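Attaching the record inline, Q. Sequence:
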Amino acid sequence: MRTLLFVDCWPDIHPPGVWRDRFAAVGPMASAGGFRAEVHHFSLVDVSLVAGAAPEAVVISGSRSNLMPDPARDPVDGVGLDAFAGLTGALAAFPRLPVLGICFGHQYLNFASGGALEIMPGERADPAWPIAAEADPIFAGVAAPRCVESHCWRVAAPGAGYRVIARSADGIEGVRHAALPRVGVQFHPEYFTRPGATDDGRAIFANWLRGI
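Structure, as predicted:
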């Protein structure tokens, strides 16, 4: 079975192979798509791990952390790009690996490629937030998705090579790289089991898996 590497970006470290409750739906979704999901904390991901694991694709998770140019401005949740040097190096070494960035992962993909992030006026927490999606394979059959949102930062300007494929009243909701197989979404497709959520997230995740 093909391997899906799930990068856990939560600040505290869980041992390799130990899933957080909030990511519990990822393994079954991967299995349904013909993949075996392996979870590793971002601090343990580097070129040697990716080369050894030989994954078919990578998912970069959400996080409580706030990615900032100067993390000292947020001593509790602030984190700099240097904390993700291992992941950044692995993605640079394997540019053809399909990547899906979710929420924080979406912000990381854009920020690491020169994009800009900004804090929102308030936290967006909604089980079925309406999203205006463009015609893109990840939204196949889900023309007007309503997905779970849980974040207080957003992408203000996409990174180099990325174009916007979805927006909402809050701004940019999705991006796709023009040359590399990388997609980022601000919402949480893996949270479709939460109360009040629609099944759109599961459909979007399944679309991404089929596109690998």
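The chain has one domain: 2-210. The mean pLDDT is 96.

More tomorrow.
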